[in-house]
Structure formats: C-alpha cells, structure tokens
Write a structure and sequence with these properties.
Elements lengths: L3 H8 L3 H16 L5 E2 L11 H13 L2 H4 L9 H15 L8 E4 L1 H13 L5 E6 L4 H8 L3 E6 L9 H7 L4 E7 L11 H16 L5 E6 L21 E6 L12 E5 L6 H15 L6 H9 L8 H16 L4 E2 L6 E5 L5 H9 L3 E2 L1 E2 L8 E5 L4 H17 L3
Helix pairs in contact: 3-11, 5-11, 6-7, 6-10, 12-14
Bound molecules: pyridoxal-5'-phosphate.
Length: about 400
C-alpha cells in the first residue's frame, strides 16, 4: 500500500482551493464579472517595473550557463550576502551569508525549518487564526500543531494562553504577522512579552524556538511597524518570501534566516541544510536568486491594497458587519452574520460572493475576504455584501 497520508492530502483540496475551483465553474456559467471572488491570496498588482526590467537585463546580459545553472545547495553566496546586508541595514542583527538559506518561498522555508527542528512527537504552538498549511507542514515533520486562540476581537497573541499551552514537548512557537487570514499585525508589546516568556523557559532548560513566517512583512499600511523577532529573542528563525512583497508568487523564491545570536546557530543552520537536502529543496531557482539580489528593499505598489481595504471596511461597517480593521497583508476578517461561518459562506454564494469560512483557520464565526483584487471588482461587489447583510434582517 502506498502512503495513505499523502493520498489523503493529495485528494482533499483545501477549503480555499475548493472555493476557487467553484468560482471558476460559476464564472464559466454566469460570466466573469458576475462572480465576486475573494477566495485566493494571489497578488493583484504586478511586480515593480524595475524588477521586471532587471529580469530582462539578467536574461540578456548574464552568462546563460550561470543563469540557468545550479547554485550552491543553500543558495548563491553573493545573493545570500546581499540579503544579509539588507537585513543588517534595516535591523542591525549582525547576520551573515552563512545564516541564510535560499528556498522556493515561505512554504518551502517552513517545511525545511520544521524538519530541521522537530523530532517525532514534538509540539509547535501557533496562534489562531493561522494559515491552514501549518498543520500539514508540522505533521509531515513528525510534530503536532497546537493552536492557541488569539485574543477575542483583536486577534493579538494571548500571551498567558500561549504560556499555558507549553508542555515539555513544545519545540517551537510559529507566528505570522501581518497575519493571514486576519490582516492583524502583532504589536511590539505582544512580541516582547512572548519573547520574555520563551526566554524564561530557555533559562529553565527548555529551548523553544520562535519561528516567524513573514511573506506579508512589507504589506503594511499607515506606517505600522512589524517587530523583527531577532531583535527580541536569540532563538529565532525567519521564514521570508518574495511572493507577496514583490508579487512573484509563481517564481517560488524566498529564504530562511537563522539568528546569529543563537548559541547553537551553526548546528541549526546545518540542520536546515540537512532538511533541505532530505526534502530535495536545494538550489532555489537561480534566475530568481539573481533577481532578488538586485531587488532588496523594493516592494510592489501596495497602495491599491490599502485603498481596497479602506473602501471595504467603510462599506461593510455601514452595512452592519463587524470587521477587524487590518493593518497589513491583503485580508479582511469579517464576523459571520450567523454563528456557523460555513453556513454564512454558503449563503454568501447565493449573492455570488466567494468568502472563505474561517473554520479552516482554526477560528469560529468569521470569514476571510481576500481583497487583493481589482478596485473595480470591490465596487461591483458592494451591493452583494449589502444584500447579504439585509437577507439576515428579513
Ligand atoms: N505563509 C502564509 C501565511 C501564507 O499566506 C502563504 C501563502 O499564501 C505562505 C506561507 C506560502 O507562501 P509562498 O508562496 O512564499 O510559499
């Protein structure tokens, strides 16, 4: 018999993918413009023009053997040095090229990190709501994901609840801020308190790593700051991706950064190289390694997302919805108008609104609206949101 866990994972699509596929069928039936698809987190703005021209420049002017060739397993040394320089210029953490491992995006970064840290039976605490794939990544590495509810209404980490969830098997805490699906940015207070508690466990002899999944770091509005965990806690690892910040999700490029202040940094980095090797995640795409070395500090035009957020939040509040106003990412968390968010998302379909029920994100009573869509679609969808709200008043 072949591996039944893999068969199950490959046969059951995620709720988000199911909804996206439903949307494709529905668009074919009633026309593209008549379906308001808020299901996927696919960036709707292009990569910055200078990044696109740099890509053409590399293709035209670089040695094709190098462009299309293997790099070192952990990524090209000059590329890793460029990333390290940029991190140091922003966060002054003294990181070097040998603390960086190039990956095919945040998903690969997370899989590698989990496989490098976990032994069978280890636990990884995360904060709900959370990206559903975390469960897949942690379980594949032999661990158990332990979700802890965020604070009611704000979805900031509940520090005491996290402390209460720690057991002798806890190996890591996995956070994601700006958060998918709530758009919430974890405040400096929350991060500092969380790190203080992890430090206390560390001093008592239990090392708990803090892993920060950061594909949305650059997508923040109104000057909100996203604390850099290496400045708060030594035993920290960042999983970064250019999928959303540069609108390059299809190119599969990102990295893992290990905090050089951690005493066992070299061993953790070796484990990351080993897990990458065992999973076959070596030599991230070399063309895109070259590209991102030239694109440090650049970000796609996120003003479109900010405008979409503002239009949606204002309209939905006026229709009587309760929303968590997001400071980042491109997701809006909306309280469902009935306790069962699956039933609410199903009812929304009658109005051609495709909203993701938050149950798969580990939270009851909310739906996720991905507003990385055209402003025009947002405007056209507003009457549907209004009609959906009114249908509950009848
Ligand atoms: N983590 C979170 C929270 C995400 O939302 C996503 C993608 O949507 C990923 C990880 C995976 O990102 P990547 O495309 O870089 O693999």
């Amino acid at each position: 018999m072949i591996n039944q866990t893999s068969v199950r994972l490959g046969s059951n699509r995620s709720v988000i993918r199911e909804l996206f596929e439903y949307g494709k069928r529905r668009k074919a039936e009633i026309g593209e413009d008549n379906v308001f698809d808020f299901s996927l987190g696919n960036p709707s703005v292009p990569a910055p023009a200078e990044v696109q021209s740099e890509l053409l420049n590399i293709l035209k002017n670089s040695d094709p053997v190098a462009v299309h060739g293997y790099t070192s397993a952990q990524g090209d040394a000059l590329v890793r040095a460029a990333i390290a320089d940029y991190i140091n210029s922003k966060f002054s953490v003294g990181i070097g090229a040998d603390n960086i491992y190039m990956t095919c995006g945040a998903a690969a970064s997370l899989c590698i990190v989990m496989n490098s840290l976990l032994n069978r039976g280890d636990e990884v605490i995360t904060i709900a709501p959370y990206f559903p794939e975390y469960k897949v990544f942690v379980e594949h590495a032999g661990g158990t994901l332990v979700p802890v509810q965020g604070q009611k209404g704000t979805f900031q980490p509940d520090i005491q609840a996290i402390k209460g969830a720690v057991t002798p098997k806890t190996k890591a805490v996995l956070i994601n801020s700006p958060n998918n699906p709530s758009g919430v940015v974890y405040g400096e207070d929350s991060i500092a308190q969380l790190c203080k508690i992890l430090q206390e466990f560390s001093e008592k002899g239990q090392t708990i790593y803090l892993v920060s999944d950061e594909p949305y770091r650059e997508l923040v509005f109104g000057g909100v700051k996203v604390p850099y965990i290496m400045n708060y806690y030594d035993k920290s690892i960042v999983c970064y991706s250019y999928s959303k910040s540069l609108s390059l999700p299809g190119e599969r490029i990102g990295y893992i950064a290990v905090n050089p202040a951690m005493s066992e940094c070299a061993e953790v980095y070796a484990a990351i190289c080993g897990a990458g090797r065992a999973l076959g995640y070596v030599c991230a795409p070399s063309l895109f390694q070259m590209l991102i070395a030239k694109a440090q500090g650049k970000t796609a035009d996120i003003s479109v997302y900010e405008r979409n957020r503002d239009v949606l939040v204002k309209a939905l509040l006026s229709y009587g919805y309760t929303v968590v106003k997001p400071d980042g990412a491109f997701y809006l968390f909306v309280q469902s108008l009935e306790p069962d968010s699956d039933a609410f998302a199903e009812r929304a379909k009658q109005f051609e609104l495709l909203l993701v029920s938050a149950k798969s994100f580990g939270v009851e009573g909310y739906v996720r609206v991905s507003y990385c869509v055209s402003p025009d679609m947002i405007e056209r969808a507003l009457p549907a949101f209004k009609a959906l709200a009114e249908s509950y008043k009848k």
